[in-house]
Give the backbone structure.
Amino acid sequence: MWDSVWINARLATFDTGAGSDAPASAAGGRRGDAKDLIGAIEPGAIAVAAGRIAWIGPMADLPVGYQRSQALHDAGGRWITPGLIDCHTHLVHGGHRAAEFALRLDGASYEEIAKAGGGILATVTATRGADEDALVAGASARLARLMAEGVTTVEVKSGYGLDTASELKMLRAAGRLAGPGIRVRRSFLGAHAVPPDYADRRDDYVALVVEEMIPAVAAGRLADAVDAFGERIAFTPAQVARVFEAAKTHGLAVKLHADQLSDQGGAALAARFGALSADHLEYADPDGLAAMAAAGTVAVLLPGAYYTLRQSRRPAVDAMRRHGVAMALATDCNPGSSPATSLLLMLNMGCTLFGLTPAEALAGVTVNAARALGLDGECGRLVAGQAADFVLWDIDDPAELAYRIGWNPVHAVVSDGAVREVLEPGGAGPADEPW
Ligand code: DI6
Ligand code: FE
């Protein structure tokens, strides 16, 4: 028995046939060839049963039983991609930092603002003061923006509580964002900044994270992974290693904000612990990138933060290609360094600022983003057995998703097999009217 069948589609499967263990960056170190990466099937069909992809392939091969489905949807020749995955966000937080934006425009640096007690710590104060319902409400509004652009999976971090109760509150709020139409993965980021009362005893704060917070998070099953900020203004490599060891002890995966503002050896450290991902990486050294490739650690590139902080050193995308590091892209949605709620804009920035090809950028918000969350078997590709999460787009060419700025061509979103959103026929804008 099947639930629905989608025919007459142009499928961007991101199933490169290389098997799930192969890095899906530019395979073999070539700049990602669009056809290789996208795994196009034109025209194609998808059959959905019990929320999963039951069958996918060329339309001509669609089994006869499916052709007689009662719930037959004609995609009208539209492109279908996997549901988008935003694999690095800080969606749950209190307040905003618009005033800091103005300070930075006046020349203050992100690090100077942080050292003066602003930055992350300003958001910590606002987040501690917000109750769980208020955090859910604020995050839901931001999440709605992401979902409207075809996001069906999102990662959400804690890290603005910095005491046990507030960190757990953030993770509970993040858990409440999950529901029909959206899958949520949570990362515990207690080691995001040192709270003011621990300023002179930073190791004591790390001990609190290791001995109290991580066990509480694990006991409450409140997170899937443990993240940390390895940076001069945050935690040393030795402190991050302590946090990661505790994570491993409790069976939690690890991720790292690595080498964002300076080379801290973060890429190599993440690889040493078999991290799912190392994120940012503007200052990562080449040896670290090679280690990441060997460990299967995904590079999560965050052009919104690079742009907002007006950084000039780009992540070494060429070296990542050469080494075969899988590259993902995410919003890093947070009130300081990346107040961004558009993953499509990140596709554009990933290409324009970092030099990704449009196909690489798309792999970065689908197959590689799933890998960065340990969800490779679950979502991110259009293959039989995976969740039936996909988006129909009013575009002629998948590259348009990266090329256009400020334009949302979503036609419909299917999540766990259910149609989440269908725009009014004829109301979808540019695809219907030449412009
Ligand atoms: N790097 C980031 O991009 C976010 N956290 C981090 O460690 C920024 C967090 C913030 O500025 O509020
Ligand atoms: Fe971040």
In short: The domain at 4-82+380-422 is CATH 2.30.40.10 (Urease, subunit C; domain 1). Confidence is low (pLDDT under 50) at residues 19-30, 424-435. The radius of gyration is 21 Å.
